[in-house]
Each structure stands twice: as C-alpha cells, then as structure tokens.
Design a protein that fits this description.
alpha/beta; FAD/NAD(P)-binding domain; 7-stranded mixed sheet; 5-stranded parallel sheet; 12 helices; 21 strands; 24% strand; binds ubiquinone-1
Length: 445
C-alpha cells in the first residue's frame, strides 16, 4: 500500500512540476467581460470599434487581434505596379485602434456563442454582450503546390499583390520581363477584391508598353470565373479594353500547380479538372485561394459550409445568435468583398448593435454596395460601383464605365487619407450620402 501511496505521491508532485506553468496561467487566467467584443482589427473591425467606443467610452469595447500592423490592402495593387511603396500601406495596429477600446493582442482560438465567450490563444476567456466578427479572409498559398516555393526564390519571377510578403515581388518581376509569357491568375472560390487580379494585368501591360517591351511579351489572364466581371456594364467595357490592348483572357481556367525551377504554371479547366495544360512563364502573378480563418471555421454554430459567418444579408446579424454580427470579408453576405463594402456595412452594423443592446428592432438595410476602382494603367481607372443585384450603383454624374484620370487620382491620392483619417475613426460610411447629393446632377445621364 505504502509503496503505491509513494508512487502516487511522486507522480503527483511530478505532475505538479510538469504542469505548473499551465496550471498557474489557468488559476490566474484573466476572465474579461465587455459590452462589445470585436474580433479582428482590420478595416471593418477597426471602424465599427471606433464608432462603438466613442459612444460607450473606455472599458466597454475589446478588440482582439494579434497583428502588429494594420495594412491598407487596397494600396497593394499600386505597390505591385511600383506606384506606391509598401511602407505607405501600413501603420502600427496600436496607432489605428481606437484609444477608448482595449486591445488584446492575441488570436481568437475558440468561439462559444452559446456561452457568449471567446477563448484567446493564451487561454484567456472573454465574455461579451455583443460579438462582432471581423476576421477577414486567410490567404491559402499552400493550396497550390509549388507556389510557396516559387514565391520564396530570391529575385524570382513570381509575385502576388495580396500579401505584404509578396507584393514587392510583382514589380521586381515585372521590371525584368522582356519576352515570353506574363501570366496572371484568378482562383476558384470567393476572394477579397475580386477585381484586383485583373488590375495587376492592366498595370503590368501598361508598364510593358511604356518600356517598349510589349511587342515581345504575351499578356495572359487566366481566370477561374466564367466572365471577366460580374456586372454587365463594366464587363462590356473591360472586354473592349482587353481586345484593344491584345490581352488574352482564358475563362474557367484555374492555376493548380507551379513548377518553380522550370518556370511552368499548370492550369486546369474548372469544369473538367482533368483537362490540364502547362505554360512557361517569364512572369507569374498568382492569386491564392482564400477562406475564412481556421479558428472561425471550426465553430460550426457560427458559420456556413464554407466557413463564412452566417448572417442576414440585410442586417448583418447572425441568423441564430441575435447578439452576434459580422462585417467585411468573413461575412456570408453575398457582396463583393472590398473595403468600400465594409464602409457601407459599418453604419448598419453599428445601428443594429445599438438596437440589439436596447432591445429595439433592426431598421437599416445593407444594399450590398461594393465598389472596385479598376485601375487600368498608370493614369487610368474605371470606378465600378454596384449592389447585391449586380446593378450599377454609381456615385458620380459621369459614365463610370469609362477609363478616367480623375478616378485614378481618387484611388491613389484621395482614398488613402480618407481611409486612415475618416474610415478608421468611424467617420466614413461609404459614399451613400455623396451619391444622393450628386444625383441632382445625373439628370439625363
Ligand atoms: C470607398 O468607400 C472605399 O472604402 C474606404 C474604398 O476603398 C479604399 C474605395 O476604393 C472606394 C472607391 C470607395 C467609394 C468612395 C467613393 C468616393 C466613390
């Protein structure tokens, strides 16, 4: 008996020793409570947190995000074309999050919506009255065999405007191209800013023209989608543009593998995946498939089969949990995932969070507004704006399907300060008011 007791004693003390750090953190585990927990300090999360924390003051809003930097992702298109520097696309997370909100610099590891609780990566438990999920989309580069290696080759010829780690490689690859095939891709599935893959095509093509290399380079856009753009008005304009500029567009054509040492990209027909072909590239701009982050996808109560937070598309409120909302790229609302969409969602989400806290009905409706400044060259841009029905919903009293210098300047010089100073501080709700004001000039348009 005694020897058994001794063994037990020893094993208990051994256990104590081996688990001490864990058990200490458990007993001392901070249990936070807040009125509103915002998971994700990106575009949507930061702007709604700003509105909420200025309404409720200190101590009521927590923002959970592990990132050190907040990127203005719409800038990446311009960085990939050498028009802006990567350094101008980000600020420290600390400097952009609202001062009245508490920032917990950790990941959300588990969601327990039945207990109104989120567990962080360190095991901290955060209890909330309202949860706003704003986690964005994850870039799945590893889903295309060979792509991660191709992107890691120093002075290589593969770039990707979607990641701060790879966006500079687009321009450095572009500068080296003087013959062969410059290939641009668009993956299957839902991605953020679905116009961005072709913006890279147009800017690169313009670069090659300006540097007198265009005649020796084939410019090819291989897209998994069945059309060049979802909104007819802009698709018509873009088809004319690619024809005029001799850009080859292959629809329903998906990048499935890269062979980095042979400079070969393998594509498959979306409708018949066994139908594959290989093509040698002198430059490849690759766009990865995307999905909501894994931690979110794991919480089956919150998400749909693709991992997007299952919300009512008009109210952005969760279908099952009335105290849960989503904003931006990780929501199931079927809009184009852009910063402008998050801007238009932000007042709706804010109003509906207040209404829910006050037990009032939700009155506002998000119409699916998204906009996509389709940069078509070094000084040109088509400003696409549309709603859930893929009908144009334009701000300016001009034909917005035309390439314009003014729209390029708006994208390059006007939007970044608007984003940093107005949107992230909760003062930009998209151009709805401007559209109404401008509509008096639209007579006869
Ligand atoms: C917009 O609201 C927005 O979000 C901040 C963008 O992202 C950076 C845009 O690119 C555009 C075009 C809009 C819409 C704004 C106007 C003035 C039409």
């Amino acid at each position: 008996m005694s020897s058994v007791g001794q063994v037990l004693k020893v094993s208990q003390s051994a256990l104590k020793l081996s688990v001490r750090p864990l058990s200490t953190s458990f007993t001392n585990r901070q249990k936070e409570h807040c009125k509103i927990l915002v998971v994700g300090g990106g575009t949507g999360g930061c702007s709604v947190a700003a509105k909420l924390s200025s309404k409720f003051g200190k101590g009521n809003v927590i923002v959970l995000d592990p990132a050190e930097r907040h990127y203005y992702q719409p800038m990446f298109t311009l960085v990939g074309g050498g028009i802006k520097s990567l350094g101008s696309s980000y600020k420290s997370m600390k400097s952009v999050l609202p001062k009245n909100a508490k920032w917990i610099q950790e990941k959300a590891k588990e969601f327990h919506p039945d207990k109104n609780t989120v567990i962080t990566s360190s095991g901290q438990e955060i209890n909330y009255d309202i949860l706003l999920v704003a986690m964005g989309l994850h870039l799945n580069y590893e889903k295309i065999p060979g792509l991660v290696e191709a992107l890691s080759i120093p002075n290589g010829n593969v770039g990707s405007n979607y990641s701060p780690d790879h966006v500079d490689k687009t321009y450095s690859a572009l500068k080296r191209v003087d013959k062969g095939n410059a290939i641009f891709t668009m993956p299957t599935g839902s991605i953020k800013c679905p116009g961005a893959p072709q913006k890279a095509v147009y800017i690169s093509e313009d670069y090659l023209r300006r540097t007198n290399k265009r005649k020796n380079v084939n410019v090819i856009y291989n897209t998994s989608i069945a059309n060049i753009f979802g909104v007819k008005k802009y698709a018509d304009a873009l088809w004319k543009l690619v024809e005029k500029r001799d850009i080859k567009v292959n629809l329903k054509t998906n990048l499935v593998e890269v062979k980095p040492h042979k400079n070969i990209a393998v594509f498959a027909n979306v409708e018949n995946p066994n139908d594959k072909f290989e093509i040698e590239y002198s430059m490849l701009h690759a766009v990865p498939p995307m999905s909501p982050p894994g931690e979110l996808k794991q919480c089956k109560e919150l998400v749909n089969e693709l991992g997007f937070v299952e919300v009512n598309k008009d109210t952005m409120q969760h279908l099952k949990y009335s105290n849960v909302f989503a904003i931006g790229d990780c929501s199931s609302s079927p809009n184009s995932k852009t910063a402008a969409a998050a801007a238009a969602q932000s007042p709706i989400v804010y109003d509906h969070i207040l209404a829910t806290l006050n037990g009032k009905p939700l009155k506002g409706v998000y119409d699916g507004y998204a906009s996509c400044p389709l940069v078509t060259g070094y000084h040109k841009c088509i400003l696409a704006e549309f709603d859930y029905n893929l009908q144009p919903l334009e701000t300016f009293p001009v034909s917005q399907d035309k390439e314009r210098y003014s729209m390029f300047i708006m994208k390059k010089d006007f939007m970044p300060p608007l984003y940093w100073h107005l949107m992230l501080n909760g003062y930009w709700n998209g151009p709805g008011m401007m559209r109404k004001a401008m509509s008096i000039f639209k007579f006869g348009k």
